[in-house]
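User: I'm curious whether this sequence folds into something compact or stays loose and floppy. Could you predict its structure so I can see for myself?
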Amino acid sequence: MKFISLLVAAALLSACNSPKRFEANRSAAESWLSSQVGAARGNVTGKWTDASRDGWGDADLVQKGSRISGTLGNYEVNGVANGSRVFLALKSDGWFYYSAEAEDSGSVLKGQYVKGVPDRSYHKLAGGSPFEFRRVR
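Assistant: Here's the prediction. I'll summarize afterward.
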């Protein structure tokens, strides 16, 4: 009986991380980012440190045109710029865990983040937690 319970539990857990769920999560992140992209006014390429000391760790970002990539702490960054605003989707092990929106002042990225990926109709994150990063170089 214990063996059957373990088999059922294993099957349920594997279904939670199915390829369909990962694809839906990836698609939602890409869709949200695509709906935010525009002409960038600045460039966030460089090293950034967590000024809010929320435990995110440092960021290393690369911006090419309106597209942003890199790392933020333990997360891989996929992002876009639109004017002086940046929109970031943070993933680990193939799953997008957080979304963030920030204003780029050149030396400071200040904004908010939420858990998960918002619907593409969200043009501003609401009710998120604040964060701030300062450019190191």
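Summary: Residues 5 and 132 are 46 Å apart (CA to CA). Residues 2-135 form a domain with the Lipocalin fold (CATH 2.40.128).
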